[in-house]
Amino acid sequence: MKPVLPPLNALRAFEAAGRLGSFKEAAAELHVTPGAVSQHVRLLEEWLGAPLFERLNRRVQLTPAAQVYLDEIGPLFEQLSQATAKYGAPRAVPRTLTVSSLATFTLRWLVPRLAKFRAAHPDIEVKVETSNEPPESLKDGYDVIIRGGPDTFYGYAMRPFLTEERLPVCSPALLQRAPLRTPGDLRAHTLLHTSSLPRLWPDWLASAQIPALAPAATLTFDHFYLTLQAAIDGIGIAMGPTALVADDLAAGRLVAPFAGPRLPSRSYCTYVADEKANDERVLLFRAWLEREGSASSMGRNG
Description:
Blueprint: H1 8-20, H2 23-30, H3 34-48, E1 53-55, E2 60-62, H4 64-85, E3 95-101, H5 103-120, E4 124-130, E5 144-149, E6 156-162, E7 165-169, H6 172-177, E8 190-194, H7 200-207, E9 217-221, H8 224-232, E10 238-241, H9 242-251, E11 263-264, E12 267-273, H10 280-301
Helix pairs in contact: 1-2, 1-3, 1-4, 2-3, 5-9
């Protein structure tokens, strides 16, 4: 008679969560998200037709029957590991690092540099999802969250890694058509806006002491990366964050027609849940971000 076995991934998630008493800690050990552990446990509960955990406020607790079940299957995983080890060392399995990051930052700064991290740490697989939700509002337990700051969120450790300022940028071709010698020359140009950052141009014009300047036209986009792309394409002039346009300035896709004024801006920071602050993957990724951020700042100042 063929043995009847439950889904093995679900069984592994149950064993880890029951042994550790936490879906989050089980997720860290298995290199998946807490949501994946919860889904596997739910699948096993449906397969068995009985609950396995009592969901409490900030933790989970095995039911009495599930504790007996765990005591019986726990040693089996150790036996399986020992039996497998006799056939040689297992291949290294990539460890997943889940990152939640801002969309424009991801597109224009993080993605072009990720190959460096992968080359240095081929055993860590980075999974990036974009969002602008605050850390405490995210449903899944990400390993690293990249947001503006510095801000304080209960249960999260914050570290800044990249600073920036904002100043006008445009394509070289645009300047050939209509030069910009002084800020007042902006009257002949199209100013590019982002709907979520409506104060950028008014604040800069006020700093330049021409708050009443009326441009030839304005164009507004709903995402900041579209505003920057429109500047690269020569449609108009955008307020460029120095960190996110540094590569374009270096490559000549964009130019900064004025040395100043420069608007101060929030830093980019990593936010990590307290229980993950000492995770090796998190430490390596944070240290890499800080090195890259420092190199970007020196490049802008050089």
